[in-house]
Amino acid sequence: MTRHFLVDTDLSPEEQAEVLDLALQLKRNPYLRQPFAGEGAARKTVAVIFDKTSTRTRVSFATGIAEMGGSPLVINAGESQLGHKESIADTTNVLERMVSSIVWRTFAQSGLEEMAANSRVPVINALSDDYHPCQLLADLLTVKEHKGELAGLTLAYFGDGANNLANSYLLAGVTAGMHVRIAAPAGFQPADSVLQAAKIRAEETDASILVTDDVQLAAAGADVLATDTWVSMGQEDEKSSREQIFQPYSLDAAVLAQAAPDAIVLHCLPAYRGYEIAAEVIDGPQSVVWDEAENRLHAQKALMAWLMDRS
Ligand code: CP
Ligand code: NVA
């Protein structure tokens, strides 16, 4: 059966560790795996579809597919019939006959689920309203490089606790055996369905979950601090109210001072300095955000190679 990657828990703890190990190998040896190369000059195509804007995801998938012997076909919103003139199922039935994988950044998670249900080639979530699982593979790879073992580390996330990054930090973090703390105001904490899935996974891995509105409690002694924009793509109309609500959750120097002395700071980017993160934190010595951005490439190559091995 074809494997897809729509949500962080689509990989078991063992499988997540395999993908991260392969990512480390590919970082050292970029051309080690060639799942999209064919005989002679033949190259397989991978469709990379964007219903929302992107810099890192676009460049890292296009580069990674090319480095693994394939041709990336990047399709931007409004350039195809998908979503307005043609159903997801009909588009998928066409794509799967021509391409080796489909990477899709979209709004509704249900759209990705519908595509995967109709596809014999792997479908990869390149960000939806609910999850950003590829980002979390890169984040975990970055933590592994800087800290070694993931299991047992404490990761604290601050800000919008109900967005795609918060959900993925929870699910991917506990899959790796980490203690995940989410500091977010009431009304912006993770949905019960996400918490339930995270709790089930945490029991398998001896991980733990703390959801709180107390920034100090979340930050105390943490090994990894993370945040994300307060205004995700599609929420632009709520910008001013969100900036007020989340202001006490800004990842600034005072918050960083509560963490472990050797804590590292993650941000998936794009970042809004002075809002969810202070300039002195993201541009300071404990920030690893450029490693994190580069690791999108290595982690996604590993994911694509791993999925192609199983399809
Ligand atoms: N972090 C991330 O997904 O960046 P882009 O939106 O630029 O792809
Ligand atoms: N939560 C952000 C992540 C951007 C990479 C958004 O969805 O816009």
UniProtKB/TrEMBL annotation:
Which parts pass through the membrane? none
Annotated Aspartate/ornithine carbamoyltransferase carbamoyl-P binding domain ranges read 3-145
Q: Which residues form the Aspartate/ornithine carbamoyltransferase Asp/Orn-binding domain?
A: 152-307
Q: Where along the chain is carbamoyl phosphate bound?
A: 54-57, 81, 105, 132-135, 268-269, 296
The pathway to which it is assigned is: Amino-acid biosynthesis; L-arginine biosynthesis; L-arginine from L-ornithine and carbamoyl phosphate: step 1/3
A Pfam family of this chain: OTCace_N
Keyword list (alphabetical) reads: Cytoplasm, Transferase
**Kind of enzyme, top EC level?**
transferase
- Tell me which EC number(s) this protein carries: 2.1.3.3
Tell me what reaction this enzyme catalyses.
Answer: carbamoyl phosphate + L-ornithine = L-citrulline + phosphate + H(+)
Q: Where in the cell is it found?
A: Cytoplasm
Q: What is this protein called?
A: Ornithine carbamoyltransferase
| Species whose genome carries this gene | Psychromicrobium lacuslunae
